[in-house]
Amino acid sequence: MNATPALLEKEFKKSGPIKPNGIQVRSTMLQGFCFRFVEFEVPDAVQKVIQA
To answer: Do residues 25 and 34 make contact, with C-beta atoms less than 8 angstroms apart?
Structure first.
């Protein structure tokens, strides 16, 4: 639960360009889980992340 948007950007931009405002972090601390979304500008970047 410690992954900040800045940390996500640092790691995921290695795979390709991220859309402006393309990183979202949503959490429900009471239930103890988080969702993180990264939206890339190009489909190839998604494939690179999946293969990594």
So the answer is: yes
